[in-house]
Structures are given as structure tokens and as C-alpha cells.
Amino acid sequence: MSGTEDDEFVAFVAARGTSLLRVAYLACGDEGEAEDLLQTALERTYRNWDRVRRDNPEPYVRRVIVNTAISRARRRAILRIIPTHTPPESSARQADVDLRHVLMDTLRALPPRQRAVVVLRYWEDLSETQTAEILGCSAGTVKSQASKAIAKLRLVIGEESVKGVISNVHA
């Protein structure tokens, strides 16, 4: 790569790195694993930068993150237990924090593709079409996976809680 292309890549990482790390964390649920996912995605992006930079590179990086997270989860094939407890009602703020922890635990327990759909659709606020493009599937599959994932989330933490936490997760 030329110096200009390197500078463009560095600028892209500086501008979007935090957002992409959040996607990686939500895709896998572990800080160390998220850093590894992002590093892998950025490495692959760098190797293809001359092709990727012409378009919007962020969807490419997201797709690499999600696909890598799914592949790693499949390889591990670890049985995850869905938490069934409810957060204590000590205070509203503490309940929100506890509910977010329960949500993250439940999100980690979802199958990798459902977790990817929830992350891309609700945290990254992508359309069904954009999510389908990143995941390499149809919009119908995105709808189906989102429906199944939200149903599991509602089962564990309740319908109103899911709506509130998803809409306020960035707070």
C-alpha cells in the first residue's frame, strides 16, 4: 500500500474503531474476545484495503466481525445457560444496571446468528436489508432470526424490559 492508502486506513480506524469495538463486544460478549475480533477484522480489511476503501468500508468490517464471531462460537460449541433470576429492586438505577447485565448474559446465550441480528438491527440500527447484506442472507432470515431472538429475550427478562433496555442501551 502507498503512504496515502495507509493514512486513509489509519484515519478510518481512528474514526470508527470505537463503534466497531462495540459491535465486536456485542457479537461475542467478552472484552478480550471483542478486541481479538476487531483486530482480525481490521487485519483482513487492511489486506483488502485497496478494494474495500472505494466503497464504504464499515459494512465490510462489520461483516468480518460478525462472521468471525459466528465461526468461533460454532467451533467452541459451548452449552450456555440462560439466566432465570430477576434483578433486585433496590433502586431504579441499580435495577437498570442489573437488567443490562441480565440482558448481556441473555444476549451471550443466544445462538451466534441471532445475536448478530440483534446487535446489527437494534444496537447498530441497521435496516433488515443492510443486516441481510452483512450476514449474507435474505431479509426474511433476518426477520425470522430477530423474532426468535427477541422472543428468547422476552422470555428471560420480560417484554417491557427488553424494549426499555434496547432503546436505552446507549445511555
From TrEMBL:
GO annotation terms (biological process): DNA-templated transcription initiation
Keywords from the named record: DNA-binding, DNA-directed RNA polymerase, Sigma factor, Transcription, Transcription regulation
Domain RNA polymerase sigma factor 70 region 4 type: 102-153
Top-level division of the source organism's lineage: Bacteria
GO molecular function, one term: DNA binding
Positions of the RNA polymerase sigma-70 region domain: 18-77
Gene Ontology CC entries for this record: DNA-directed RNA polymerase complex
Keyword Signal tagged: no
NCBIfam families: SigE-fam_strep, sigma70-ECF
Family affiliation: Belongs to the sigma-70 factor family. ECF subfamily.
Protein name: DNA-directed RNA polymerase sigma-70 factor
